[in-house]
Amino acid sequence: MTDSDSGKGLSLDDVRGAGVEASLRPTTTGARIAHLLQRDGVGATVVLVLVIIFAASTVDGFGSIGNIRNVLISVSFPAIIAIGMTMVIVTGGIDLSLGSVYALAAILCTKVLDVSKGMGGNAIAGIALALGAALLIGLVQGVLIARVGLPPFIVTLAGLYGVRGLVYFVSNNGNDVYSAPQSGAFYQFGTGTVFTIGYPVVLALILYLLAHVTLSRTSFGLTAYALGGSEDASSLMGLKVRSTKIRLYVISAGLAGVAGILAAAYSQSGTPDLGRGFELNAIAAVVIGGTLLTGGAGSLIGTAAGVLLLGVVSSYINLGTDLPQAAQAVVTGAFVIVVVIVQRYLNRVQRR
After folding, report:
1. Which of 2, 51, 248, 307 has its CA 20 to 30 A from that of 209?
2. Spatial separation of the C-alpha atoms in residues 33 and 305, rounded to whole Å
3. Which domains can be identified in the chain, with CATH numbers?
4. Distance from C-alpha of 220 to C-alpha of 209, rounded to nearest angstrom
5. Beta carbons within 8 Å of 118's beta carbon, 6+ residues apart
6. Which of 351, 331, 306 is nearest to 78 (CA)?
7. CA–CA gap between residue 132 and residue 270 (Å, rounded)
8. Where is the signal peptide (predicted)?
9. What's the pTM value of the predicted model, to 2 decimals?
């Protein structure tokens, strides 16, 4: 079957018709509730609100401005990565390389700044190199997946290891840690605030808004949903199957690069172990937010709720319990299992 990149004569309603969601209108009260909880991250948002209320009422200082600010800053970097992960998973794909791309961007950016300290640090060159490398990685992976036809899991798993190896190569086998100047525009980019809200949080919010509009209001985004519903049907409809896939992997890697640059600006350093497991945390947030790993359904609102939920749980464990840090991984795994079980139950109820 050939890929058509013409896309001519298609309306947004045509594209919506190729998605996997919803063909049956719920008829019973239980089915309507199940349908509501699965829409646009409503279920994840409800759970998030309940967990916040519980944590704030049981842990002193949890609801303080300082702790809220810390939680928002800590989740802003993985939140940006989760945007790209959501967009890829919606098509039925996956990107396991994002944590490594995040680390590479941070290392490249801070290395350029470190090397050029005597000249005041060249932030523009560092950002350009880091972002360019991230976009190139996304392009290569997208071409291998969309044009060559290799499975996304295999391609991005290779990317996870290959890019991480590149991180260690750039950092002299992991022995070098680079630092950026503690002043200037790059420093302000990571540590500045807007009405006491950190720049990383503001940037994450802007990116979520742009990505949400792109996925839900443009033919490009709706084509992504259609691919997750049925790639064959999308191709028969004349949708831009291959080019859409390639662009999504470029966007995904580019967002990981932006997150890495932002993390470097915030911490003013780059280390080779940065971002380990971030891709798995992003997948967990996406699943908790209600996006189907099979593709065709999901929302960035749900992903945002999933990211915040993991951040709130992490903060609760740190402040309100004596559990070790490793307990966060256990809780995250439990959340994912529970969410998948609930999704299956809601799907059954909705069909009644």
Report:
1. 51
2. 19
3. 12-17+25-351 (1.10.3470)
4. 16
5. none
6. 306
7. 17
8. none
9. 0.84
